[in-house]
Amino acid sequence: MKNFNFNIEQAKEINKKINAVLEFKIIKGNENGKFYSTPFLVKDNIQVLGTKNTCGSKILENYNSTYTATAVQKLLDAGFTVVGKTNLDEFAMGGSNENSAFGPVKNPWDLERIPGGSSGGSAAAVAAKIVPFALGSDTGGSVRQPASFCGIVGFKPTYGAISRYGLSAFASSLDQIGVLASNVENAAITTEIMSGKDENDATSLNINWDLTSNLNKKLNNLKVAIPKEVFELDGVDKDILSKFKETIQILKNNGVEIDEINIPHLKYTVSIYYIIAPSEASSNLSRYDGMRYGLRTENDALKKTYMQTRDKGFGLEVKRRIFMGAFTLSSAYYDAYFAKAAKIRNLLNQDFTKAFEEYDAILTPTSPILPPKIGELKSPLQYYLMDLFTIPANMIGAPAISIPAGKINELPFGIHLISKPLNDANLLRIAKQFE
Ligand code: GLN
After folding, report:
1. I want to staple 201 with a disulfide (CB 3.0 to 4.6 A). Which of 12, 163, 305, 399 is the partner?
2. 368 lines ligand 1 (CB under 6 A)
3. What are phi and psi of 414, to 5 degrees?
């Protein structure tokens, strides 16, 4: 990673094909830092002073960052250089990058296909070797799913491990900054630097992590569980299943103990996510009213200005989430939807807590499908189902990682590991062992 050669002209040429980077901008880190001049990209919903922060939205098209996110600042202090900001689904809502106001990102493995999302720009840029790693945000899988679709590593640490100060909020109880990297080692090095308490984020954890010293040491007597539901739930592609079974066999041959278990509430994951995340989003996005940030349509009446600004500024998917969230939080429906979803979130947590008493990690495919062609999926539901295996980690605040595990029909296939909260160092060791 240290001697990675970044050539801006070359990067721009590559980017013409994939539309992964919205803005190239060099912000140099500390000259005395260990990683001086090693380049990285930042998802365009994380503030970096001197760059825009569009969130992939028209409403923030001309909005400039007013400060630098803590996570980015820590990397700059260690010498890393920001080289630009990456494309994303608008406000990180989506799993395909087709929801960006600035055009879709293309998957470097097949330019007709989506790179996944919402951190699709970061994933595509790392896969196209523009940078050795990039920052993303993960609310329901947005670091891990695009990593899987682009054949790289995507790591979402324990909730609160990395400060969210400077990350534009989507669903605050689920949001987490994570790393998309060319390998597990780069993910571990950068997460170690970014993690720790930040007084600007009350949910940040007081941790002082060593994720790297033992990374190459094998864990003995490893016990891994696979939820039976992977093989039972609808919507998991059969090529994915057969490749997944092959992977299990390889791991078993390498001495890993693998059992099947039940995660009874896994089948409700997508349903509760699409109540909780839009509810939080509808509240978080109320700040984009044309008064405080970005776009403002001119009108003589205040209420009309709010409405027109939001109508012009937000795209379809963001509006859909705001509608859903406003509905599920409304006093008439709160108990029927939000309160119920919150209860099931607790039950899901219990399922996983129980599993972690016996197992080091839980293994699934990262995505139930391979990357579809741009425009191929028609209904929002088809997109929502892509997050089946990645959402639980956000719901329970646990660390999770996607690592490449070969190809299916020339397209990258990724496997996904979740471990118990704060067990990030061991999870990375397991991932390294499986890499
Ligand atoms: N695809 C999910 C969604 O649309 C997850 C997004 C994310 O993790 N930011 O909400």
Report:
1. 163
2. no
3. -120, 145
Q: What is the average pLDDT score of the chain?
A: 96
- Is the separation of the CB atoms in 119 and 86 below 8 Å? yes
Specify the pLDDT at position 24: 98
Residue identified by tokens 């790392």 is 126
Q: Is 116 in the pocket of ligand 1 (CB under 6 A)?
A: no
- φ/ψ region of 421 (left if φ > 0, alpha if ψ in -120 to 50, else beta) reads beta
pLDDT value for 85: 98
- Categorize the per-residue pLDDT at 295 as very low, low, confident or very high, splitting at 50, 70 and 90: confident
Residue 166: band (very low, low, confident or very high) from pLDDT cuts 50, 70, 90: very high
169 within ligand 1 shell (Cβ under 6 A): no
Report yes or no: 286 and 279 within 8 Å, Cβ to Cβ: no
Of 352, 414, 350, nearest to 155 by C-alpha is 414
User: Which residue is closest in CA terms to ligand 1's atom 10?
Assistant: 93
Residue 238 identity: K
**Active site members:** 43, 118, 142
Ligand 1 atom closest to Cα of 139? 8
Q: Is 414 a pocket residue for ligand 1 (Cβ < 6 Å)? A: no
Residue 372 CB contacts under 8 Å (≥ 6 apart), including other chains: 96, 113, 114
Residue 102 CA, ligand 1 centroid: distance in Å: 18
Q: Which atom of ligand 1 is nearest to the CA of 93?
A: 4
The minimum-distance atom of ligand 1 relative to the CA of 137 is 9
Greater confidence (180 vs 290) lies with 180
25 phi/psi in degrees, rounded to 5: -155, 130
Task: Determine the pLDDT at residue 430.
Answer: 96
Verify whether ligand 1 is closer than 6 Å to residue 277 (CB atom).
Answer: yes
Q: Extract the tokens encoding 275.
A: 């109540």
| Structure tokens given for 342 | 């919150």
118 preceded by cis ω (within 30°)? Answer: yes
* Burial class, 183, CB count within 10 angstroms (exposed 0-12 / middle 13-18 / buried 19+): middle
- So what's the pLDDT on residue 1? 84
Q: Is the CB of 141 under 6 A from ligand 1?
A: yes
pLDDT score for 2: 77
Residue 35 scores a pLDDT above 80: yes
Return the pLDDT at 299.
74
Question: Distance from the CA of 255 to the center of ligand 1, in angstroms?
Answer: 35
The finding on whether 118 has its CB within 6 A of some atom of ligand 1 is yes
Phi, psi values for residue 134, rounded to 5°: -145, 155
The residue whose CA has the least distance to atom 5 of ligand 1 is 140
Return the pLDDT at 305.
87
